[in-house]
């Protein structure tokens, strides 16, 4: 929206030159009120003139992820730690925010079955083969105290500079779809005996 920036916007709106962009206000909330007004006016003018409004990157939050669930009619839950999760195709997926500013989005999936410790080497081979051939998701295992193995996937992205709604949509679907693809591959290696006719 470069056309509406700086003095051009002030001139176009009939404002005096000094009411153009100023240095950020160090107010209590850390938001420059002039910039906020500038963005609102720019958005209004763009809509009125038929220009395309560009979705600007914003910090990722649990609220934005919850809104994504609602837009896509997905059921989800919030656990006791405040983390979001849900079941997709019978597999548990969590949506975590890590980092000092909660800027790292991680979609973590867990296969819906466990593997015995005797199969650890072959499951690790399957994970390593997947990781060598594909970017997403990262696949690995966790050995529980009872000796059973959980198969896990992760897609993590550093969103330090924010993310648009479209980008967030793509990242969340990427975590779910690629995780599901890996779990489908594990299902082929280890078919569910209850799912096979006797």
TrEMBL record:
List, alphabetically, the CDD domains matched: YbjN_AmyR-like
Question: Which superkingdom, per the lineage?
Answer: Bacteria
Pfam families recorded: YbjN
InterPro entries in the cross-refs: Put_sensory_transdc_reg_YbjN
Q: What is this protein called?
A: YbjN domain-containing protein
Taxonomic classification, please?
A: Bacteria, Bacillati, Actinomycetota, Actinomycetes, Micrococcales
């Amino acid at each position: 929206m470069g056309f509406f920036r700086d003095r051009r916007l002030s001139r176009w709106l009939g404002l005096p030159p000094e009411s153009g962009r100023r240095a950020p206000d160090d107010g209590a909330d850390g938001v420059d009120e002039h910039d906020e007004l500038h963005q609102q006016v720019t958005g209004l003018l763009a809509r009125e003139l038929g220009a395309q409004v560009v979705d600007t990157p914003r910090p990722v939050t649990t609220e934005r992820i919850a809104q994504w669930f609602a837009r896509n009619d997905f059921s989800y839950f919030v656990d006791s730690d405040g983390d979001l999760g849900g079941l997709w195709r019978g597999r548990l997926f969590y949506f975590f925010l890590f980092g000092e500013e909660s800027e790292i989005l991680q979609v973590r999936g867990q296969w819906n079955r466990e593997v015995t410790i005797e199969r650890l080497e072959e499951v690790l081979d399957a994970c390593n083969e997947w990781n060598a051939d594909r970017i997403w998701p990262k696949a690995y295992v966790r050995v529980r105290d009872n000796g059973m193995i959980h198969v896990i996937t992760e897609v993590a992205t550093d969103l330090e500079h924010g993310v648009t709604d479209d980008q967030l949509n793509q990242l969340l679907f990427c975590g779910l779809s690629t995780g599901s693809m890996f779990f489908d591959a594990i299902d082929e290696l280890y078919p569910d005996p209850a799912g096979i006719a006797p």
